[in-house]
Amino acid sequence: MGQKKLIKFAAIKEYENVLEYPQDMPGKWAAFFKELEKGTVNIPLEQLPIEQTEKPLVLELACGRGEYAVGLGRMFADQNFIGLDLKGNRIWKGASIANRDGLKNVGFVRTQIDQVTQYFAKYEVDEIWITFPDPQLRLSKAKKRLTHPKFLRLYQQFLKPDGIVHLKTDSPNLYLFTKTIIELFGLTLLTATDNLYGTKFMQSDKWDDRCAIKTYYEGLNIASSNRIHYIQFKLDKELPLELDEKLKDIIAEFEVTETHDSLARNGKQAME
Fold it and tell me: Does residue 270 lie within any of the structural domains?
């Protein structure tokens, strides 16, 4: 591991706004943010009370450098935001900015996304943002896509019944895959566009100012796509396991036209 990464890993261990694999956190996030706002040092997680959330809690999954958690934290002082990712050196960036700017409503959790249900109580989260995740283009890796029913069932365990999921991606395949799931399972589709920054959509009543936040990976344009795709939907229906087999047959017909390896082949792989 490089020296810079070691320095970042050491730094986040001292950050009050970063929790690494925290134990017994479901139901405690309201209390955690109160302590963060007070400037408490070494917040005693085991002593935090379980409280009813007074402020909406918004989760950014696979947050990377946390641009959305930080950006939303700036926009909405009356809400709390958590960025979740496994890469500590990436989390360091967002956590450092939140500390620098005094954003006491922004926190980060370092863990695997498939462990996310360990950290939130039933109905504790109001919204989920998934921004530029790895689209996992190979059919054999479809279950690793963060909008696959496997993951949606996890989110349902802590997302409020009327909670909203946002997907922002440069991958046409992930966009189509997600739309297919919404249709197959009868979920409520609120917004869908394959050209988020197109004049027509930006001037429509569907435009959401939060979509203007741009991530590091959006700037890289890994998929070499001229368009950003965006979907907003609710997890308001049951997700029967038997439909997963039907989904497998449907997505097998998708034609893969992009690859996340394109930057590496062009010698443009970002240094992290």
Answer: no
Distance CA 34, CA 53 (A): 11
- Residue 271 domain-assigned (yes or no): no
What CATH number has the domain bearing residue 115?
3.40.50.150
Q: Which helix or strand (DSSP H or E) is residue 4 part of?
A: helix 3-14
Tokens of 180: 């297919």
Range of the domain at 94: 3-265
Does 121 map to a domain? yes
Cα(83)–Cα(88) distance, integer angstroms: 11
Give residue-wise pLDDT tens across range 211-220: 999 988 887 7
Q: ∠ at Cα 80 (229, 237), nearest 5°?
A: 55
Comparing CA positions, the residue from 188, 197, 255 lying closest to residue 221 is 197
How many domains are there within the chain? 1
Helices (H) and strands (E) in the chain, counts: 10, 8
**Residue 191 falls within a domain, yes or no?**
yes
**Is residue 134 annotated as part of the catalytic site, yes or no?**
yes
Catalytic residue among 101, 134, 162, 244: 134
DSSP string, 181-206: HHHHHT-EEEEEES-TTSHHHHTSTT
Q: What pLDDT digit, counting tens, does each position of 194-231 carry?
A: 999 999 999 999 999 999 999 888 877 655 667 899 99
On the CB side of 268, CA atoms within 13 Å amount to 12
